[in-house]
Amino acid sequence: MTSAARQHDRAAAFLALHHGEGGFVVPNAWDAGSARILEQVGFAAIATTSAGIAWSLGVPDGGHVDRDTMLEHVGRIVAAVGVPVTADLESGYDDVATTVRRAVEVGAVGGNLEDQAGDGLFEIEEAVDRIAAARDAAPAGSFVLNARTDTWFGGATGDPFEATLERATRYLEAGADCVFVPGVSAEDDVRRLAEAIPAPLNIVAGLASLTDAPTLFSLGVKRVSLGGSLTRAAYSFLERAGRELLGPGTLGFLDGAVSYADLQQRFE
Fold first, then answer.
1. Which tens digits make up the pLDDT trace of 114-132?
2. How do residues 9-23 score in pLDDT, each as one tens digit?
3. Looking at residue 7, what is its pLDDT?
4. How far apart are CA 213 and CA 61, in angstroms?
5. CA–CA distance, 225 with 120 (Å, rounded to integer)
6. What span, in angstroms and rounded, lies between the C-alpha atoms of 89 and 71?
7. Interval 38-56: pLDDT, tens
8. Radius of gyration of the chain, Cα coordinates, nearest whole angstrom
9. Which tens digits make up the pLDDT trace of 177-193?
10. Which residues are within 8 A (CB) of 246 and not within 5 positions of it... i.e. 6 or more apart?
11. What angle do CA 212, 213, 216 make, to 5 degrees?
12. Which domain range does residue 141 map to?
């Protein structure tokens, strides 16, 4: 099988997850090692996290990593696993079409595109044009385009539900396969969005009170992602371990840790 055929099959498999019974969780890896572990746990697909990749490089999230560096890390994650990988492409950087084409070249079968620029949202017509450019760069069936709208983070004026629905509808008409709405937390709002948006809805767990995937699925959500939450958990554990070493000097943090031999075997 050629690499192009393999990538097409992975994209089809990833898209099918959005239309199956119930919903699915796609965890966010920040490097090749975390991706391998998540694949071994049994996840059917893996997402990248721009926040986690940025933190792993010692810089903040939010545009502090350039496109080349970000896609280099995405490529390493893709190469490390056999399951489909969807990439966090932030707002598409300076050229959405080029960014999507480059993501396809490194093996990603999907990607998130934000409609936020700096401290505010792109005007809706510009945001729609960016989704259309992404779709033109990666035709339907070859790349699962997840249109993210930050309306619930306060970027829109007026009712966030109506603003979200308007943008979601326009993004789908421009070629998006699914819609990602981070920041929404009230169960009623999630249910209304899932019922009103005519495509699979992605909600991120771990940002607000709704952190239970089964609850989100019961509300109609199809795709649950974690953003930088797994990275935060890993770094929080590292900090606790460091404080234990610096303080009492004990090694309690190693209780339950995977052995060196086991980890070596997992990465063979």
1. 999 777 899 999 999 999 9
2. 999 999 999 999 999
3. 86
4. 25
5. 23
6. 8
7. 999 999 999 999 999 999 9
8. 19
9. 999 999 998 999 999 99
10. none
11. 95
12. 3-227
Pairing of strands 46-48, 178-180: unpaired
Furthest CA-CA distance within the chain: 59
Q: Is residue 55 part of a domain?
A: yes
Q: Is residue 102 part of a domain?
A: yes
Query: Is residue 50 in a domain?
Result: yes
The CATH number of whichever domain residue 11 belongs to comes to 3.20.20.60
Is 43 inside a domain boundary? yes
What pLDDT score was predicted for residue 158? 81
- Tokens 């893709």 belong to 78
Q: How far apart are CA 213 and CA 204, in angstroms?
A: 9
Domain count, the chain: 1
Which of 201, 213, 196 has its CA nearest to residue 177?
A: 201
User: Considering the entire predicted model, what is its pTM?
Assistant: 0.95
Which of 134, 213, 225, 210 lies closest to 171, judged by CA?
134
